[in-house]
Amino acid sequence: MKTKRLNAQQKLFIKHYLDTFNASKSAELAGYAKDTGIRLMSNETVRTEINRSVNDLYKKHAIAEDDLIARLKAIAFEQ
Questions:
Q1: What pLDDT was estimated at residue 50?
Q2: Percentage helix, strand, coil for the chain under 3-state DSSP, each rounded to 5
């Protein structure tokens, strides 16, 4: 299956969505009508890019469970 390309306005919507996680507000900020946010979220190409971007952000900022436990122990038992 060929993946459709995002246009500039869709990319702007995604950028704003990743900042706000609010489809209506992001649509307005990208120059769409407010009620267009729901339609954009149902667009497979837009949704795929949002999911990819969220996963990338999670990976960038994620901390391993063992590291988190070790850090919490260090804080809890500091003297």
A1: 96
A2: 70, 0, 30
Which segments within the chain are labelled E, that is strand?
A: none
CA nearest neighbour of 41 among 28, 53, 19, 24: 24
Contact yes or no for 27/14 (Cβ under 8 A): no
Side chain identity at 17, as an amino acid letter? Y
Mean pLDDT of the chain: 89
Q: Is 40:46 a contact under the CB 8 Å cutoff?
A: yes
- pLDDT of 78 higher than 60: yes
Name every residue whose Cβ is closer than 8 Å to that of residue 1 and which is 6 or more positions away in sequence. Answer: none
pLDDT of residue 3: 64
Side chain identity at residue 42, one-letter code: S
Tokens of 6: 């995002």
Per-residue DSSP letter, 32: S
